[in-house]
Design a protein that fits this description.
Rossmann fold, 10 strands, 18% strand, alpha/beta, three-stranded parallel sheet, 269 residues
Length: 269
C-alpha cells in the first residue's frame, strides 16, 4: 500500500438486511483486491445504541484500524445521525460526520462522502463540463444530495445546482431544462415516458432497485430510477445500473480509507 502498510477498514453491520449484507460482501471483495484489509463487525437488529457506540469507540481507539464505516440503513429505533457522530473524523471513511461535512461546505474537505465522490469521478473521467451547467439533483439526503450539491457549487467546479425532493411540485419542469440530472429516489422507472428531457442531457442514476423477474435465476433483476428504453431517441448519456454509481461508491470508500491511513501515518511523524 502507498502508506507503507495494508490499511484496515472496519465495517459495522447492524441487523440482517439482505441488501446491506450484499453491499458488505462487495466492499470486502474489492478491498482484498486492492490490498486493504477489512474487519467486519456484525451486530443483531436488537443491538442498542449503547452497544453500537461502544463498538465504534473501541475502533476509534484501535491503532490497527484506519477507517470505519457504519453500514446504512440502521434498524428502526437506532438514530443514525447520533451514532455516526461517534466515529472519529480521522477514521470517517464515508465522510458523514458533522466535522467532515462542515469542512465540505466550507470548501475545506478532508474526504467526500463516497457516493458524491464517485459521481464527481465519473464527471472527471468522461470530461463532463460542469461550470455554469444546470444540474438537477433529485435527492436531499446527507448521503447523496446535500454533499453532492456542495461539491458541485464549490469554487473551481462552479455548477448551478437545484435540489428537488418529494415536496417539489415542478420536478418534470426542472428536469426539462437540466443539463445533468442526478436521481436517487429508489423507485424503478421513476424517470420514464412523460418526462421531456433536454437533448444531450446526462442522467446519473444512483439507485439500485430489485424488481421481480421470473426469467432470472435469482427471481429478480436490478434496475435504477431511470428507464433508458423510454429515451432511446434522445441524444445524451446515462450511468448504467448495475455497474455504475454503485461500483464507484465502493471504489471511493476504499480510496477514502487509503487517504485516511496516509493522514494518520503523517500525523505520527
Amino acid at each position: 500500500a502507498a502508506c507503507g502498510f495494508p490499511p484496515c477498514l472496519a465495517i459495522i453491520l447492524v441487523g440482517d438486511d439482505k441488501a446491506s449484507q450484499s453491499y458488505v460482501r462487495t466492499k470486502e471483495k474489492l478491498a482484498v483486491e486492492v490490498g486493504i484489509a477489512t474487519r467486519n463487525h456484525y451486530l443483531p437488529a436488537s443491538a442498542t445504541k449503547d452497544e453500537v457506540v461502544a463498538l465504534i469507540r473501541s475502533l476509534n481507539a484501535d491503532a490497527k484500524v484506519q477507517g470505519i464505516l457504519l453500514q446504512l440503513p440502521l434498524p428502526a429505533g437506532l438514530d443514525a445521525f447520533s451514532i455516526i457522530e461517534e466515529i472519529s473524523p480521522s477514521k470517517d471513511a464515508d465522510a458523514l460526520t458533522s466535522f467532515n461535512m462542515g469542512r465540505l461546505f466550507k470548501d475545506r474537505q478532508n474526504v467526500l462522502a463516497c457516493t458524491p465522490k464517485g459521481i464527481m469521478k465519473i464527471f472527471e473521467y468522461y470530461k463532463i463540463p460542469l461550470a455554469s451547467k444546470n444540474v438537477l439533483i433529485i435527492n436531499r439526503s446527507n448521503i447523496v444530495g446535500r454533499p453532492l450539491a456542495a461539491a458541485l457549487v464549490s469554487k473551481g467546479v462552479d455548477a448551478t445546482v437545484t435540489i428537488a425532493h418529494s415536496k417539489t411540485s415542478n420536478i418534470k419542469e426542472l428536469a426539462a431544462s437540466a443539463d445533468i440530472i442526478v436521481v436517487a429516489v429508489s423507485k424503478s422507472g421513476y424517470i420514464s415516458k412523460g418526462w421531456k428531457l433536454k437533448s444531450g442531457v446526462m442522467v446519473v442514476d444512483v439507485s439500485i432497485n430489485r424488481i421481480p423477474d421470473a426469467s432470472s435465476p435469482k427471481g429478480y433483476r436490478v434496475v435504477g430510477d431511470f428507464n433508458p428504453d423510454d429515451f432511446s431517441d434522445l441524444s445524451g448519456s446515462y450511468t448504467p445500473v448495475p455497474g455504475g454509481v454503485g461500483l464507484m461508491t465502493v471504489c471511493e470508500l476504499l480510496e477514502n480509507t487509503m487517504f485516511l491511513a496516509q493522514r494518520q501515518m503523517e500525523a505520527k511523524r
